[in-house]
## 1
Amino acid sequence: MPQITDQLQDLTYLSWAQARQSSGTAGSFLKSYDDIGPRKVYYKLSDYRIGTGIVGHECINEIVVDRLLSILGIDHLQYRLIHANVLVDGSVFETWLNASDDFKAAGESKIALDTYYQLERHQDESPLSFCVRKGWAHRIWKMLAVDYLILNRDRHGANIEVLRNPRTRTLRLAPLFDHGLSLLWQCHTLEAIRAFDVMADTRVQSFVGTHSTRDNLELIPKDEFPRLGKLHEEDRQALFDGLESATSQEWRDAVWSLIWQRWCHLETLRAS
């Protein structure tokens, strides 16, 4: 199945519901699913606003981050990007949306990390200390590094999930997912793109960390700084291949600048 479906599809049969999110925006991030075929497929839209329509590019962000995490060797949910007509609030919109498959294995159920933390934490135990005690430190360090690299604004407690298998009595963190509110999120005009500081320490949501992706890197023990796959300048083509009709050259240039400059800073920290 191709990662990008450029030919316009008719997905007006899907029903959309608002997803949990903590971005503080006036918009909505709508989700849907289709279980008619042999496997359940999940769909999500970029930022939708009543009276305006679908204004965001979060679904395109997901594809760029998906490709980046594949290069870096990070376990993550894989997304597809589909050019489609959708029906929302009685109106048809032409847009780009994401599709993904269920990442749960047979017999597994999922629970949001913030909910699981409230159920299982020790008194006065922080979410980060809780994850370390559960044996997930290495996964958390990689997540904090990734969220700095892509400037992820919204790693709230439901954007990290715990997968439980009662038959085998095993627990594991789900693959990383939901990176729409990253990169140049909310830069919808050329002026906003040009004015955006790709190295700015923007305030973020981080359930296991602080409101700064840069400060969150300081939470990683020096001798446990994660080794990621190598990013090269020639990887730029792989990140944006096929997105020419969905994005502007200025947007792609700015997104690459953000990723590359932050990658170089990560490499400097790792080397030190």
Note: The radius of gyration is 19 Å.
## 2
Amino acid sequence: MTDKEVLLDVKNMVKHFPILAGVFQRQVGVVHAVDGITFDVRKGETFGLVGESGCGKSTAGRTILQLYRPTSGNVIFDGIDLTKTKGEDLRLLRRRMQMIFQDPYASLNPRMTVAQILAEPLVVHNAAKGKEINERIEELLDIVRLSRGFAVRYPHEFSGGQRQRIGVARALALEPEFIVCDEPISALDVSIQAQVINLLEDLQERYNLAYLFIAHDLSVVRHISQRVAVMYLGLLVEMAARDELYSHPLHPYTQALLSAVPIPDPLKEEKRQRILLEGDVPSPVNPPSGCHFRTRCPLAEKICAEKDPEWREVAPSHWVACHLV
């Protein structure tokens, strides 16, 4: 891969949230939401980010878009370091990066009509005026396969799937190159999930979009992504091309996650061996020393508690952070 094809380059990105206490709001600790992750996303690619709830996936997505400012590290978008960009320069770059939020019920303003919701980014960024705005709204509704008559309605008049389509239309309003899809289908019925996934794939093909697709449903990620990274307690533990990761998982956590995915073949499903992890996910306020996964790992050894595992490439484009691989 050439560097020209890399659209987003995340280098050792850290995001800690301070814990404040007392009358004077002194800092008494930090939440290690994202603890130093490194990956890249290429133009026109879907990069899957998976892990259980609370591991820092959504925080990573928001920090990449600078909705949260990172504590340290670099986020380089098309050659520009977003962590060092402020004010008007960052505002102009925001046109090229958008987000589809997880909850289609909470992410749309209930007091605004669909037309107002879709017009807002166009007005804020001076992307269209007067008649152009109405034309663009109609075009966006056509793109996400909703009736143009819906423009005068309010969000509460739609189903979850329709609301998520409105969210997708809003994300597309400024013709971005990169979209963070933050669990865009987890709040929807299974039948509607497939429609939204197909829509995202069609749009990607049509506009050469790059997606960071955040999810905890491994079968959906397998369907939509070209490369997949697995996250645990603020850190990446494994990253590889989709087929490589699903057929040869190396990290014990990835193996446990994949062992939980049902197989649609009854004979294979009967032979599937579940890897059951013991204990709970440790608190991100006080993560374990060494490897964060060691407290639940069936293979953990003494070195796992003493030393942080190195993020290394063990096979071409297959990265893992584990002492035992």
Note: The chain has a mean pLDDT of 90.
## 3
Amino acid sequence: MIKVVAVGDVHGQWAELWRALRAAMAADAMCEPTLPVVEGRFQVVVIGDLVHFKDFETYARIVGVEYYDPADQEQLKRAAKAQIRELYRFKHYVERAKGNVTVILGNHDEAALTHQYQLSTRGGLHHNEFNEERGGLALPEELAVWMASFPREKVFYGVQFAHAGPLPGMQIFDDFFYHDPDTKQWWQHKPQLVEQTGYRFGVYGHTVMESGIHVDKEHRLAMIDALSRHQFLELFLSEERLDYRVMEF
């Protein structure tokens, strides 16, 4: 049996991520993996989107200005440097975990690598800090190679972990992904997709859960983009066992 610590979309919430991992006994006070993680008794899955803060206020605080201007090249570079520093710290943690930490590729992670799509919020916040052509800083090659290696899904004992949803098309971030409303709404309108794809249970992020982690017991799925609500999901898995609980920190 293994314990899986599943954490939702990070989006630069590094303090919250480390608090969650410490609460799960998956990281120590020095941001190193604990012995159960190193030995593989605990598996950690981060469901993607390490980069890009969610709002103007967070960018302003990180950059050190009163109002964040996503068109200001100096501010873009500061925002990039702040995230690069934390990405290196987390990369060190992942590497020390000897293969027992999985980071799922999120659409924001891929956008920071390829710049094929310019992502923004409904409030007009554009995420260009890693795009040199728009005044930002490119990710260092070492980080870019690492992030490009992230898998699009992970499966333990028939339980699927993916960024947006259970279907293969929901794991490819193309025009269809960005224009199909099912990408964010499937768990409400088509929750039977997890069962139809043959998984025992599914754990996904991508869509912010304003009220905290959403668990649909009937359709065997959990939506866990709730790090800002100080929540993560713990699962206890084996061939015979599938138990889970929402954890708060």
Note: The chain has a mean pLDDT of 97.
